[in-house]
Design brief:
It is a single chain. The chain is an alpha+beta fold. The protein has one domain (8-104). The chain has helices at 73-84, 86-104, and strands at 8-22, 25-42, 45-56. The chain has a 3-stranded antiparallel β-sheet with strand order 1-2-3. It is elongated.
Length: 123
C-alpha cells in the first residue's frame, strides 16, 4: 500500500499509429501516444496530475516484429520508455510530482469576491 506522499505512476501507451503495411509486415506501430498519470492519497483526498504526448518509433530494419494482435500494454510502455530514454522518463515523472506538490501547497489561489446582497429597485 502506498504511503500518503508516495506517488503512484500509471503509464498508458495503448493508443498507437500504425502503417497498415510496411514490407512484409502489417500494422507496424510507428508512433505511440502516451498518457502518464501520477497520484497520491493526500489526507484521504486523492491528488492527481498528468502528462501526455507522442513518441515516434524507428521502424527501419525491424528484426523482432510482434504481430499487433499479440501486443500487450507492458510492451508498448517498455517501447515508449526505451524510445524516450531514462532522462525523459525522469523528467515526465518529476513534472507530475511538481504538479502534485503545487496542488498540495499552492503559492497562489483564485478566489471570487462576493457581490453585496441583491436589492430590488424601487419603483
Amino acid at each position: 500500500m502506498a504511503t500518503e506522499n508516495e506517488i503512484i505512476y500509471n503509464w498508458n501507451c495503448n493508443r498507437v499509429d500504425v502503417y497498415p503495411t510496411q514490407g512484409e509486415f502489417t500494422n507496424v506501430i510507428h508512433k505511440i501516444h502516451y498518457v502518464v498519470t501520477g497520484g497520491i492519497n493526500y489526507s484521504t483526498v486523492p491528488i492527481t496530475a498528468m502528462c501526455m504526448g507522442t513518441i515516434p518509433l524507428n521502424t527501419d530494419g525491424i528484426t523482432n516484429f510482434v504481430p499487433f494482435d499479440e501486443l500487450t500494454s507492458e510492451q508498448t510502455v517498455n517501447w515508449t520508455k526505451t524510445g524516450m530514454g531514462e532522462e525523459m522518463v525522469f523528467a515526465i515523472e518529476s513534472d507530475i510530482a511538481n504538479q502534485i506538490e503545487a496542488l498540495k501547497n499552492p503559492v497562489s489561489i483564485t478566489m471570487v469576491v462576493p457581490d453585496p446582497p441583491y436589492e430590488a429597485p424601487l419603483i
